[in-house]
Amino acid sequence: MEIINAIGRRKAAVARVFVSEGSGKIVINKREINHYFPSSILQYVVRQPLKKLEVAEIYDIKVNLNGGGFKGQAEALRLAIARALVKIDETNKPALKSEGFLTRDSREVERKKPGRPKARKRFQFSKR
Strand, helix or coil at 31? Predict the structure, then answer.
C-alpha cells in the first residue's frame, strides 16, 4: 500500500496526515501522540475514526499539525484521519459519516468590530 494523504481543518488548526500500513503508531510533528497530546481525552478524539472501523493497529499515521489550540488541532486531526480512511476504502464512508467524523466544523471566531470591546459586546449605555 502506498502512502495516502489527507487534510483536515478546524478553527485555525490545519492537519496534514500521511497514512501507511504499519503497527498503529501516530507521530505528530515528530513526537509521539502521548507526548503531543498529554490529555487522554484529546488522544481519544484523535483515535475515534480508527476505533470505529477497528483499524487502530493496522495503519501508521504521520502528521504535520500547525495553527490553533490543542482542542482545534485534535478535531482537525480527527477529520483528516477520517478522510484518509475513506480514501483507502470507500466502503468506510457510511460508518464514519453517521458518527459525524467527515463533517468539517465551519465555526470560526467572529472578528472584533471597531469601537466595541469585543465582537458583539457594547460599552455600557449611559442615558445621562
Answer: strand
Domain that holds residue 29: 4-99
Does the global pTM surpass 0.85? yes
In angstroms, the Cα distances linking 44 to 10, 34, 77, 115 are: 17, 11, 11, 42
- Judge contact between 80 and 17, C-beta under 8 A: yes
Domains: count for the chain: 1
For the stretch 12-23, pLDDT in tens is: 999 999 999 999
CB 115 within 8 A of CB 66: no
Cβ-based neighbours of 32, under 8 Å, separated by 6 or more: 25, 26
Any domain includes 41: yes
Q: What is the CATH number of the domain that holds 70?
A: 3.30.230.10
